[in-house]
Every structure is written in C-alpha cells, then in structure tokens.
Amino acid sequence: MLLILLVHGVTARWFEFFRQSPSSDQLLILPLFSSPSFLFLSPFLFPPSL
To answer: Quick check: pTM over 0.85?
Structure first.
C-alpha cells in the first residue's frame, strides 16, 4: 500500500513536470502509459466508478 502511494506521488509530480514543459517533450510520456506498472496501477489511479 505504501508503495502504491509512493508511485502515485511520483507519478503526480511527473505529470506536474510535464504540464510545465514544452509539448514536444510530452512524447516521452508514452512509455509510461505502455509500462506494466502503469497498467497495474491504473485501477487505483482511475477508479472504475469515474
């Protein structure tokens, strides 16, 4: 559980960094979404109820 909170915090900080960076750098965001860890965490980050 603590690991999930840690990864979620790092991911949120990572998104905040990309929100302030040039749009061309956002191409680097694709490996995150295709990574197994993101697919595992997606139910926690985006609950099905949304």
So the answer is: no
